[in-house]
Amino acid sequence: MAGSIAPQTKPKRRVQETDWRLFLRLAEYGLRDKRLLAWSFALLVPTAIAGAMQPILIGEAISLIRQEQTIWTFLRQMSLTDGINLLAGLLLLTLILRTLFDARQGFLVQKMGQRITADIRADLFHHVTSLAMRFFDRTPVGRLITRLTSDVEALGDVFSTGAIGILGDLFSIIVLAIAMFLLQWQLALLLTAMLIPATVLIIYFQQQYRKANYKAREELSTLNSMLQENIVGIGVVQLFRREAFNADLFRTINKRYIKEVDKTIFHDSAISATLEWISLAAIAAVLWVGGLFILGKTLNLGQLSTFILFAQRLFDPLRQFAEKFTAIQAGFTAVERVSDIFNEPIDIRDPEHPKTLDSSPESTTGEIRFEHVSFAYKEGEYVLHDLNFTIKPGEKVALVGPTGAGKSSIIRLLSRLYEATEGCILVDGVNIRDLPQTELRRHMGVILQDGFVFAGDVKSNITLGETYPFAAIQSAAERTNVSALIEELPQGYDTLLRERGTNLSGGQKQLLAFARAAIREPRILVLDEATASLDVGTEALIQDALDHLLENRTAIIIAHRLSTIRNCDRILVLKRGQLVESGSHEELLSQGGLYASLYQLQMLET
Ligand SMILES: Nc1ncnc2c1ncn2[C@@H]1O[C@H](COP(=O)(O)OP(=O)(O)OP(=O)(O)O)[C@@H](O)[C@H]1O
């Protein structure tokens, strides 16, 4: 637990994706609905043009009142009242158009954003569930959850805060600049020149913001990991009185998180403040230079008014641009973190030219062969060494050995949750790497000590998303002698089980796992300490059911209680990842090796 509070730095080998590539990744999602995307952009044009027209119309109105020479020719031919009315009418029209288009555009952009985030979330979920166990070994759950929820949410914020309107702001700035240059190039040049220091400062602050934001998100992940660990392990936390200690750790990480968030706020405010200052300076500069032009009679008051409005208008989108920029930067951080997961390679892939297992009813099936299999969870740290054995179809084999000998690892390799480092594993003569994973796992029924239960009813916990008629569910429960237990539950098969099955006992969860395996009629059954949580009476009941269930099926059974495996055809004894003995119970006892000593020790205990 203590290790998890170390400050999180970006992994060195992490490929720094450029913003452009991150942008393309988003664009790929945006392009899924081209019509929506096209409309969102198309509506920016009338909005920007209407916006640029307003200062010009106001300037014209002032020029008209002052009867200046620069007014449009068609206005000169009208009376003052008609001219003013026409200009006011036009101004109202631009206002209405701008409001309507702006609202519609805002709605479409948000709609697009919601769609994109929903798609990303769904793809991410699919990708994460396809990743190999190795990935989950090294990734804390809280960290993953943060990426799947809060980071994807930050991405959604880019759209919901209207930050995507940054393109509209950029467009507005360009349209305004063009309009200004057409009107009076010196003042236009002055204003556009002031954009340069503003842009440089924005870029600097946003880079700082981005750095702080990345760190803040990392700290948030750590915070969530710790939260998750403490909630899942609440029993141990309380029993061992770690509350105060953990609270201290939590406070430390919380402080670090807040510190980073403060930095993001500082840089965000710095951007707004700088822009405020520069925009005021710009208006002052226009007034000063424009005033000189008026004195020199090269400019009139109407034009100056237009430019003062332009100055305001020009920095307005820039200010909004900066505000949105921080949301966009946060979004980029989120895409970066989400991309990290998308870039996580799926280690265990299905073959390009998959083979299938012979499923004709006559064929004797369920042969398992390990050929020179070695395996390491971490590079160089082998936990299984050069394993060679064959389990014949229908044979019942027990794996025995001290704690940590590698029994469960064998099962994980056989189910391809991990890939063997060396050697190969064959099922019915086919290398399991040549089989699609679903095909391999369809033929395997694995019952683990910790029967995991999903939130849902008993039925759905047996079918696990596949469709079986109710009679099949009942029959599977009856065959495994668990139907009596299920019927005892308040609503029988419809009883709702809570997440992780907190309303079932450990033994009850295990019993459900038996029905779950039986309904699939697997050709290979694997029991990893499957009856360890059961009382002697229930175990005898299950043992009886197992005798039927195992008929004509290959089985691998791991059990520490050696009495439960006496009837197996063969016992493989493992020691530190090596196969040290193999034979029937009697043969091994007479050999007087590791098995015999383990057995005698257990006999002494009873
Ligand atoms: N996910 C993992 N990452 C790294 N090492 C692991 C992992 N799982 C198991 N190991 C290591 O591999 C070795 C074999 O573990 P395994 O679970 O196969 O033993 P086992 O014989 O089933 O033990 P037990 O009887 O206690 O269930 C152990 O030394 C263990 O520390």
Automatic annotation (TrEMBL):
Chief location: membrane
Q: Which residues does the UniProt record annotate as the domain ABC transporter? A: 368-601
Q: Where does the record place it?
A: Cell membrane
Where are the coiled-coil regions?
Answer: none
Which terms are listed as keywords in the entry?
Answer: ATP-binding, Ligase, Membrane, Nucleotide-binding, Transmembrane, Transmembrane helix, Transport
All residue ranges annotated as the ABC transmembrane type-1 domain in the record: 38-330
Which Pfam families does this one have? ABC_membrane, ABC_tran
Protein name as catalogued? Long-chain fatty acid--CoA ligase
